[in-house]
Amino acid sequence: MAAPAVEGATVTALRAVLHRVRLAAERSGRRADDVRVVAVGKTKPASLIDQLYDAGHRRFGENYVQEIIEKAPQLPEDIQWHFIGHLQSNKVKALLTAVPNLTMVEGVDNEKVANNLDRVVSNIGRQPLKVLVQVNTSGEVSKSGVDPSECLDLVKHVKRGCPNLEFSGLMTIGMPDYTSTPENFKTLYNCRAEVCKALGLIESQCELSMGMSGDFEKAIEMGSTSVRIGSTIFGPRDYSKKK
């Protein structure tokens, strides 16, 4: 009897998050539909994702290649999968071949991984893959992402040198204790302004993926168009299952 109770709680948690997203969007003068919610199931079983799918949710994310490779075949094909965070170049082929419904990679942080993604997409003959460039807005050495000063150059490389990738915007992951979150978000916002001005892009068509379980409402208020919610929906992580 315990498992259904946990799964029911997960669906309830998702609905609560969507309500909070709607309120935050309204506070920033936008609609809830303007903000994408990616439910991140890191370390959680496919059965919980399936429960959220049955409740109507379609956008899910994973942080580990092995996890998404294992889960995706167990779940409906119309799920829109996001790979989130640093992607090792040697795992690009395995990811793209195993997850044909991969919608986006949120975490292109260097030219090498961009080139590998571009080549594999071409080789397997799939539609162009949407990508977000990851920016290290907190300056932490342990964090992946390009320095804000190098963001424009990487975006130019993706747009001009990777015809099988579709540059869709920027993403960042804030500091663990959220003490500098507003600054992180402002930095990404400024990076988008610089990129759009230099490349003649419309800002509304350049996504800002920022905000997680502890700070997504503030992120939305500061312009985020996509938030990545994990533990607030799924509960605490079991990192003993880390892949």
Automatic annotation (TrEMBL):
Pfam families in alphabetical order: Ala_racemase_N (PF01168)
Alphabetical keyword list: Pyridoxal phosphate
GO CC terms, sorted: cytoplasm
CDD domains (alphabetical): PLPDE_III_YBL036c_euk (cd06822)
Domain of life of the organism encoding this protein: Eukaryota
Coiled coil: none
GO molecular function: pyridoxal phosphate binding
Domain called Alanine racemase N-terminal: residue spans: 14-237
SUPFAM superfamilies per the UniProt record, alphabetical: PLP-binding barrel
InterPro entries registered for this protein in UniProt: Ala_racemase_N, PLP-binding_barrel, PyrdxlP_homeostasis
Cofactor(s), by name: pyridoxal 5'-phosphate
Homology family: Belongs to the pyridoxal phosphate-binding protein YggS/PROSC family.
Function (record text): Pyridoxal 5'-phosphate (PLP)-binding protein, which may be involved in intracellular homeostatic regulation of pyridoxal 5'-phosphate (PLP), the active form of vitamin B6.
NCBIfam families xrefs: YggS family pyridoxal phosphate-dependent enzyme
Name of the featured protein: Pyridoxal phosphate homeostasis protein
Species of the source: Erythranthe guttata (Yellow monkey flower)
